[in-house]
Design a protein that fits this description.
8-stranded mixed sheet
Length: about 230
């Protein structure tokens, strides 16, 4: 027996080493990692600085794009305040006052003034005086039959009138302007009606064409005399 220790023999089957191909690849990778970067130190620093500047520019550019998108979104959301927006609708105008009368009936003078003309009239006699005030034309009738009660003739009979303007006041009372065909001689001379306004046939026809529903007739004064 020898006194020197014997070196144990490796058993390939009990402790297998790395495969040849894998060992070679790992060895080459390690050598490549240890190898210095090509070029001088100044070249390396220059390339590193270039990479940093590129990364910084990319970050700044991305931030600018995001900011621009944000501003565009705010403009779209808030609208353009440059003064080009449509003006708000104007407030509806209000009437300055009551409608000016289209005609004025002066009972004391027995005349109806309209459009520069003065038409003779006859109004209600003492027992049936014509009430003064503002009246509005609400209807027109070329020829119509009016109830005796409506025109103050009682229930005994109705009456036909021509070129009739139907009037109404603010309290709902009704009156009429008619052609006083049954007594034209009294027009402008005497007051012979039961409260309505009577005109000569030609004048009543002219007035019928001049005024429309909505026209205002103001009745003023009182009849100076009586008849019948």
């Amino acid at each position: 027996m020898s006194d020197e220790p014997s070196t144990p023999r490796s058993n390939p089957e009990s402790n297998p080493g790395p495969a040849p191909d894998l060992s070679s690849a790992l060895h080459a990778l390690a050598l490549d990692a240890r190898s210095p970067a090509p070029g001088t130190g100044a070249d390396v620093r220059r390339r590193a600085g270039t990479r940093r500047r590129r990364r910084h520019a990319a970050l700044v550019g991305g931030g600018a794009v995001a900011a621009a998108a944000l501003v565009a979104g705010l403009v779209v959301g808030l609208g353009d305040d440059s003064g080009s927006r449509p003006a708000p609708p104007a407030a509806p105008s209000t009437s300055a006052g009551p409608t000016a009368p289209a005609a004025t009936a002066d009972l004391a003078r027995r005349e109806l003034s309209v459009a520069g003309r003065k038409l003779p009239l006859s109004s209600g006699r003492a027992k049936y005086p014509t009430k003064p005030g503002r009246m509005t034309v609400v209807a027109k009738h070329r020829s119509t039959k009016l109830s005796g009660n409506d025109v103050g003739l009682g229930e005994t009979y109705d009456a036909y009138f021509h070129w009739v303007l139907e009037l109404r006041d603010a309290e709902g009372r009704t009156n009429y302007v008619v052609a006083l065909t049954y007594d034209e001689k009294s027009v402008g001379e005497r007051d012979v009606t039961h409260g309505w306004l009577g005109l000569r046939l030609a004048d009543a026809k002219w007035l019928y064409g001049k005024l429309s529903p909505g026209s205002v007739i103001t009745i003023e004064g009182a009849a100076p005399g009586t008849s019948g």
